[in-house]
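Fold it.
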Amino acid sequence: MDALLTSCLEHSLNSPSVDATVFVASSGVPLQASVSAGVAAMGDWHGGAIEEAARILQEGAAMKDKSLQETANGILTTWKDSGKRLPGYGHPTHTDDPRTKRLLEIADQAKVSGRHVNLALEISALTEEVYGKHLILNVDGCIAAIISDMGFDWRLGKGFFIVSRTPGLIAHAYEQMYFEKPYKSPNWSEIEYTGRPERKVPKS
């Protein structure tokens, strides 16, 4: 559990939850207000991959009448046909997520790896065959697999991310409140009006 929570603890300034925390903290509110803004910024596109990946793995692992390879192939085909990004797989930077490798080692040592982890790895192994390119099992998918083998309901996936990331948000809020200038705002050069052009309003 310590390893799972530590793996998502911090992600520098490159996430919506940290942006929300820092912007709100810069307005002079109490610590809990800025941290809650960061937590509120966690959703399907930020922090939601663990939950969705766990749902896929739990539903797939429950199909005992099929082999893991058949199940994995079915999952990949369904998601490819949907045109949506497969949650828990791929990474813009890592070609081999080091967090995943270490978490899998710890899960094996703790003897919690099971059918869900095996299915998660099987899906990754078949991605090149189905997608035409290899998609690694990233840290979100790895956490999803491990908590599934630990017996957690997939609907607690966001909860793991929230608990894990909150200490990081507290640190960012504290830094902004006591070491940075107040009132963060976008640069005027980055603001572009995209509404209707200026027009004359007829006199009544």
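The chain has one domain: 2-179.
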